[in-house]
Amino acid sequence: MVYSNRHGHEMKSAGGYTLPEDSLQTRSLRSSKQTPDDSTHNHHNYLAKFAYRFNDNHRVGVSYSGQNNKNYIIEDSAVTITSFWREAEDRSKRDTVNVFYEYFPESKWISLAKIDADYQDTETSAYNYEGTRAEDATDWSPAKQRKPSDNNIRIFNTELKRLNFRLDSQALEFGKWTHQLSFKASTAERDFDVLHKDSVYLSGVWVNSPDSTMMYPIKTKQHTFSLHDKIDLTHDWIATLGIRYDWAKYEQQELNGLVCRNCVKTDNAKFNQLTWVTGLEKHLTEAWKVGYNIGTGFRIPNASEMYFDYRDNAAGAWMSNPNLKAERSLSQNLSLQGSGNVGLLSVNFHHTKYKDFLWEQETWMFTKHMVESFGARYSKCKILILRKSTG
């Protein structure tokens, strides 16, 4: 079992100013603030593991890991008027549980069979508080107490359930070569949603706005199958071959009473991809070996990249794109490794070429077509952020 805690004022500045004091407080407030915003951190981390081996053939285990973090920031650099104050608290909480069973059969074919299950619950949130500062009495106005004006809370929830299976073979001889096979399969379901909780302070009373969101809740289903073969060609040549199939689907769920001004229901997004890897390794001596690997890969855009939509902002608009493609890549790696009494040496030359790479475009000028597509009100936005896939 392991527990760790980190707490302190890591970002509290002890520095000075390069500007003389002035009545407008330009050195300590607003965007011209010359020192970092004061912040307090409190991070908790947990880890616990337990495994039991019944005999040479059976082993079970369970593990738990968790995080509970809070960062509180006095955002003096974010205020636009010196009489305003703004504070923010970033929170993150994650709990992960894993249970597994391993079977080591007395077989000339199978060396390991393993099944394990994961459950993870994650909450990431941002609490933003704003208001007006306290003011001393003057000849023309009474003293004013510090007063809040509004709270804005954004909560991102993710729940993951996953089941994994693994089957490894013994070293099997087919002809002149020795093969060691490994088969893996996985199925998972992930639920993701965003919750907005806003309130304003009017005449000494907090008035809560209806709970809202910026996207439909998303249920993701994923299935993965892979087969890997390590081939002993001779006493100094080793080859590897691998193939993997991935399938995923995004399903938009119901809002369940949440307000969403710009949510648009689209067809379910589906992704499937077959990837492969192969390599060759040569032992030059007992101490030195060289290797070459080439393989393909891919990454599907996550739910927030496809459906996250935040338009009602005077500073800009963030547009969703449910038509994003999966990123694909071709990677090559050339390596030289050596080990001896002096130490270890590893030199690698790596190259990756991407296709349909996900990127974001900041658009400052609007064409007539863009205004018609996104709505006339966006023609007044300073910046429009679009997600695209390269060809």
TrEMBL record:
- Gene Ontology terms for molecular function: siderophore uptake transmembrane transporter activity
Residues covered by the TonB-dependent receptor-like beta-barrel domain: 39-358
Q: Where in the cell is it found?
A: Cell outer membrane
- Write out the ranges of the annotated region (Disordered): 1-42
- A single GO CC term, please? cell outer membrane
- GO BP terms: siderophore transmembrane transport
Keyword line: Cell outer membrane, Membrane, Receptor, Signal, TonB box, Transmembrane, Transmembrane beta strand, Transport
Q: Where is the composition biased (Polar residues)?
A: 23-34
Q: Which branch of life, at top level?
A: Bacteria
Grouped into one coarse class, the protein's main location is membrane
Q: Which InterPro entries match?
A: Beta-barrel_TonB (IPR000531), Beta-barrel_TonB_sf (IPR036942), TonB-dep_rcpt-like (IPR039426)
Bilayer topology annotation: Multi-pass membrane protein
UniProt family annotation: Belongs to the TonB-dependent receptor family. Hemoglobin/haptoglobin binding protein subfamily.
PANTHER family hit by this protein: HEMOGLOBIN AND HEMOGLOBIN-HAPTOGLOBIN-BINDING PROTEIN 1-RELATED (PTHR30069:SF29), TONB-DEPENDENT OUTER MEMBRANE RECEPTOR (PTHR30069)
Full protein name:
Outer membrane cobalamin receptor protein
Q: Which organism is it from?
A: Mannheimia haemolytica
Lineage of source species:
Bacteria, Pseudomonadati, Pseudomonadota, Gammaproteobacteria, Pasteurellales
